[in-house]
């Protein structure tokens, strides 16, 4: 029997809260299946099972906050007993308890590229999609009347009109642009709450996350008896006309609500504060930097991208990340963990990516096996991670095993960045902005695009000589982009 | 595409990419990417959406035209 414990989703996590169980006792799970949603200081994370077997018992209930390492559930390992399956019946599919997510597009989700795992999206033009978003219509609930079942603008507007009628309140005036925080919008999508029917109590009448949760709660359980909702909120059950089949159990919606934006910001800062203070307290950092000529890389990229559609084009960051990962395979002393007074090199390069969130703070999910991925694959993983980090849908495995981290602040315009190492990792690479600079070439001055790459490394695990060799390796790789 | 349509298309695209971005307080001649804090992936997405909505190919060589709101409007409207 195996214990499913509260995972440490990064070295900065001490405790977590069960937001939702996606399995129940008796369910079969496979290694990697998402079985719970866990709220951490930084974000709500999809927690994956470490093993294959059957859920025996859920030990910790929804809403409980427990320290890292606490047993959350017990799993009987191995193949499930045959008796549990009807003869000839197919094995229980993954995530049996997960209600289908509403398919409304999230903000920032690229259409077609690196989209989340296999949800067929209805055919809909971007303009219509935008219109649906403005009107608070969940396109997943619509039946398209257009060619090949595609959803037309008329479909969206008809649905919006019905929502307004059902809501019978002034909130959904035609064409009114509802102000909604991104987080509230995501929560609304997840809970299938029609934004047009939610009464906003935020600044300027904007809809906040708690407004959405209140609307969902009212819909699920009737008006709260405690009368906590402000007068006039009135989101009666019929105000949610387009609820998706496969409703979440009320418990998942009522409590515990994921943290509010303000709480999230505070807990995020505290988590970053703890980890960074620990890093600076424990890790003797040393720093090296080098200026890399990007002429070959950019020329190669330009040629490559010229033939491609926008969705397939690479950004220079993809090339830089690839070089960082490949070089880490060649200089293993920067790739791994400092644990128990010694350095343990990692077998693969899981490249942590510092991703700044728009509301402040950052997450550092990892691109698994980045050193062996092709460039196109690395690029799409990078896009996917950035989108999911910002929309709050990362998986536990992505947050646990980075072996080296890269920060690409150059994208925000600075020439160089010296980062703070994420313990127990031993190195962090900083990429600056690619800028044109006068460079001496063969005794003459030329103008070349260059980038400053820096390395912050743990002096316990390596010496400056090794760090220098690592940066030089990155630079060399970028002179031969066709080999990356 | 008229300049007004172009401006509207750009505003919609930006709203989609960076919901919190404040396009309305951005000076029309200031740098879009810096002003809205778009990273290179955001910018790629912007190009992608503009290309989808206008039905025209936007090459990398065209990117400088998308530097500011004004230049982007001019670029899209000229097509």
Give me some keywords for this one.
heterodimer, A: 484 residues, OB fold (Dihydrolipoamide Acetyltransferase, E2P), Chloramphenicol Acetyltransferase, 3 domains, 11 helices, 20 strands, B: 79 residues, mainly alpha, Non-ribosomal Peptide Synthetase Peptidyl Carrier Protein, Chain A, 4 helices, globular
Description of the molecule:
The complex is a heterodimer of chains A (484) and B (79). Chain A is α+β, with helices and mostly antiparallel strands and 484 residues long. Chain A has helices spanning 126-135, 153-167, 182-191, 209-221, 250-254, 261-282, 295-306, 316-330, 375-391, 396-400, 464-479, and strands at residues 2-5, 15-21, 28-29, 34-39, 44-48, 53-58, 65-67, 71-77, 285-293, 336-339, 342-345, 351-353, 355-356, 362-363, 366-367, 394-395, 404-407, 427-431, 435-441, 444-458. In chain A, helix 3 runs parallel beside helix 4 (209-221), helix 8 crosses helix 9 (375-391) and helix 8 (316-330) crosses helix 11 (464-479). The longest helix of chain A is centred in the middle third of the chain and has 22 residues, at 261-282. With 79 residues, chain B is mostly helical. Chain B is built from four helices and no strands. The interface between A and B is medium-sized, with 28 and 22 residues.
């Amino acid at each position: 029997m195996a214990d499913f414990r509260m995972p440490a989703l990064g070295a900065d996590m001490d405790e977590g809260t069960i937001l939702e169980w996606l399995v129940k006792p008796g369910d079969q799970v496979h290694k990697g299946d998402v079985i719970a949603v866990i709220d951490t200081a930084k974000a709500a994370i999809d927690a994956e099972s470490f093993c294959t077997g059957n859920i025996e018992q859920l030990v910790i209930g929804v809403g409980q906050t427990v320290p890292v390492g606490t047993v959350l559930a017990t799993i009987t390992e191995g193949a499930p007993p045959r008796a549990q399956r009807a003869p000839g019946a197919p094995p229980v599919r993954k995530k049996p308890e997960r209600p289908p997510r509403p398919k409304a597009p999230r903000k920032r989700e690229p259409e077609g590229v690196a989209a989340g795992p296999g949800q067929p999206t209805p055919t809909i033009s971007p303009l219509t999609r935008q219109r649906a978003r403005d009107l608070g219509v969940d396109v997943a609930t619509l039946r398209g009347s257009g060619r090949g079942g595609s959803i037309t603008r008329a479909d969206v507007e008809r649905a919006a009109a019905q929502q307004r009628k059902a809501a019978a309140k002034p909130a959904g005036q035609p064409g009114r642009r509802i102000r909604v925080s991104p987080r509230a919008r995501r929560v609304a999508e997840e809970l299938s709450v029609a934004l047009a029917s939610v009464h906003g109590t935020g600044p300027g009448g904007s809809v906040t996350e708690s407004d959405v949760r209140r609307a969902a709660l009212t819909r699920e359980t009737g008006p709260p008896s405690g009368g906590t909702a402000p007068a006039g909120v009135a989101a009666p059950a019929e105000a949610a006309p387009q609820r998706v089949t496969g409703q979440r159990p009320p418990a998942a919606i009522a409590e515990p609500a994921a943290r509010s934006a303000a709480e999230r910001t505070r807990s995020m800062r505290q988590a970053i504060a703890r980890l960074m203070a620990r890093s600076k307290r424990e890790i003797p950092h040393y720093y090296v930097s080098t200026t890399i000529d990007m002429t070959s890389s950019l020329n190669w990229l330009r040629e490559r991208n010229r033939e491609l559609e926008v969705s397939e084009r690479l950004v220079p960051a993809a090339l830089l990340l690839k070089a960082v990962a490949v070089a880490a395979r060649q200089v293993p002393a920067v790739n791994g963990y400092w644990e128990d007074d010694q350095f343990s090199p990692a077998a693969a390069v899981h490249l942590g990516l510092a991703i700044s969130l728009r509301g402040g703070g950052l997450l550092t999910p990892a691109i698994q096996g980045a050193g062996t991925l092709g460039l196109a694959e690395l690029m799409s993983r990078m896009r996917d991670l950035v989108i999911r980090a910002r929309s709050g849908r990362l998986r536990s495995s992505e947050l646990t095993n980075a072996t080296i981290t890269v920060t690409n602040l150059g994208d925000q315009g600075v020439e160089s960045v010296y980062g703070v190492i994420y313990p127990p990792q031993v190195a962090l690479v900083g990429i600056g902005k690619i800028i044109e600079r006068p460079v001496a070439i063969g005794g003459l001055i030329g103008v070349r695009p260059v980038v400053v790459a820096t390395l912050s490394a743990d002096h316990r695990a390596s010496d400056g000589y090794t760090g220098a060799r690592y940066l030089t390796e990155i630079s060399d790789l970028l002179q031969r982009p066709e080999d990356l | 595409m008229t300049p007004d349509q172009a401006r509207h298309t750009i505003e919609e695209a930006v709203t989609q990419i960076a919901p919190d971005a404040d396009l309305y307080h951005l000076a029309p001649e200031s740098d879009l990417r810096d002003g809205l804090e778009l990273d290179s992936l955001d910018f790629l997405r912007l190009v992608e959406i503009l290309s989808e909505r206008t039905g025209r190919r936007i090459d990398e060589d065209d990117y400088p035209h998308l530097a500011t709101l004004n230049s982007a409007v001019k670029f899209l409207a000229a097509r």
